[in-house]
Design a protein that fits this description.
This protein has 260 residues and is of the alpha/beta class. Helices cover 34% and strands 18% of the residues. α1 packs across α4.
């Protein structure tokens, strides 16, 4: 009968894997748009974390600037995905577009392990998995203009009014994101919470760094490259309306022309 290892107090769950709080107290304590979720890690997910994290994973600790070309081993454009859940859609998009690198960030350990496992099973080399706060990643670890796109699919809607300040898509976030997106790069958001969709449309439309790709200034049809996720399918079965928003990073000269 195998002997079950019992971790000592303070011993990390995965010694060579993602840390519980990678940035620690090095940065200001602010209102966060996410809550770390601790749930059961399957044997396959645990195995993937142990084997693949040192090569394909990284902790968002804010201690260094990432060289994305070195990180991925090529100069292909990099799309940042914030909040990938269990990673099925991320893996599908990576497989369908191998010429685009995906920097996928989440705080959910089972999801991190699952995405690594999917990437390994499908032979994907264009996925890297980040653990921690995407704001710290954008602000401290990515160079200006280094991203070819940004995806935020089904972020926590924080439905209660007193929690709306926790929503990710806010003017301050958009200002930071705009500095890291290359001119012409697309910010793609999707949500099944209609009040949040309306807020997203309002703040994106008002932000000078972005313009709507839709001529009518409204929501976009779901593009073919975004897979229908299991979570999304469940929402549709319940009668939820899913809205996509695709906004393009405006070039500096275009902003100047608009002000003229």
């Amino acid at each position: 009968m195998p002997v079950r290892h019992t971790r000592a107090k303070g011993e990390p769950r995965f010694p060579d894997g993602p840390k519980a709080d990678p940035a620690g107290s090095h940065f200001e304590r602010r209102i966060r748009s996410f809550q770390p979720r601790r749930s059961r890690v399957t044997a396959g997910q645990a195995d993937a974390l142990q084997r693949l994290w040192p090569a394909w994973g990284f902790d968002i600790d804010g201690s260094r600037r990432l060289d994305l070309a070195e990180f991925f081993g090529n100069g292909n454009p990099v799309v940042l995905e914030i909040g990938f859940g269990m990673g099925e859609a991320t893996a599908a998009m990576a497989a369908a577009d191998p010429a685009t690198n995906i920097l996928a960030v989440d705080v959910h350990t089972p999801g991190q392990g699952n995405l690594l496992n999917l990437a390994d099973q499908r032979g994907l080399t264009n996925v890297r998995v980040g653990n921690g706060d995407a704001i710290i990643l954008l602000r401290e670890m990515l160079a200006p203009g280094s991203l070819g796109g940004l995806r935020v699919y089904f972020p926590d809607p924080w439905p209660k009014k007193r929690h709306h300040k926790r929503r990710l898509i806010q003017p301050e976030f958009l200002t930071l994101a705009a500095t890291r997106l290359a001119p012409g790069a697309v910010l793609h958001c999707a949500t099944d919470w209609e009040p949040y969709a309306e807020q997203m449309l309002e703040v994106l439309t008002a932000h000078p760094g972005f313009e709507n790709t839709q001529a009518d200034g409204g929501f976009a049809p779901r593009p073919g490259f975004r897979p229908l996720t299991r979570f999304e399918g469940q929402g549709l079965e319940k009668g939820h309306v899913v809205n996509d928003l695709l906004f393009r990073r405006v070039r500096q000269d275009e902003q100047a022309e608009d002000r003229a």
